[in-house]
Amino acid sequence: MRTRIKEFRARYDLTQEDLARKVGVRRETILFIEKGKYNPSLKLAYTIAKALQTTIDELFIFSEEDLRTA
Amino acid sequence: MKEKMSIIISAGIALLIIMLTTFYILGPETLKLSNLLMIFIPIMLIIGAITILWDRIKNMKAGLPSEDERAKKLHWKAGAYAYYVTLWIAIGTMWYNIIFSDIFGFPQLTAGQVVATIVLLSAMCWFIFQFYFRRQGDIE
Predict the structure, then answer these.
(1) Does A29 contact B138 at a Cβ distance shorter than 8 Å?
(2) How many Å apart are CA B138 and CA B71, to the nearest integer?
(3) Residue B65 to residue A25, Cβ atoms within 8 A
């Protein structure tokens, strides 16, 4: 899974720690989501999308392979 | 900062191993390796607990939660893996008494030693799995 969190963070000039504080998670969680190493829950994905004033499908990009291996 | 902390912890563990080995070699003949392990493992557990506590305090000071969904998931997964390993350790101690002790004449493990080994090693496994999963990011 690929994410556009870094791109949206840059748009709003937010650090990983700022975003983590906004959504109520640890900074490492944001880091691993950005790297595509951690799949967040739907609730967290929605909260992040809301904090970055976007939608989940704008933020998280699934390839066909991701959907097959999920 | 993280690197500095890991260097301090590694140096502490190395120093502890050297101290215990020296004490074992130069110490009285009555001192057994199992006695040293009973000291070494709790110290490792204390170091692990301090590391976790330090990490939580650091997050709380930064205004971040000490635990989130990922941390909780990794806690549970580490617990589940440690449980499986503990079962194998329990089976291992039983086989040790049957194979090594009865057949090859190694000293028999007492019930107290078996219980202490299982409890301490399971806690240690939990710390190790937790540390490993945290570095991995996630576990499916």
Answers:
(1) no
(2) 9
(3) yes
DSSP B4-71: HHHHHHHHHHHHHHHHHHHHHHHS-TT--HHHHHHHHHHHHHHHHHHHHHHHHHHHHHTT--S--HHH
Residue at A29: amino acid letter: T
Would you state the pLDDT for residue A2?
86
pLDDT tens per residue across span A3-55: 999 999 999 999 999 999 999 999 999 999 999 889 899 999 999 999 999 99
Q: Does domain A2-69 have CATH number 1.10.260.40?
A: yes
Segments making up each domain of chain B, as ranges: 1-66, 68-140
Of B62, B68, B138, the CB nearest to A25: B68
CA distance to partner chain B, nearest, from residue A67 (Å): 15
CA distance A18 to chain B (A): 9
Answer yes or no: do B137 and A38 touch at CB < 8 A.
Answer: yes
Domain limits of chain A? 2-69
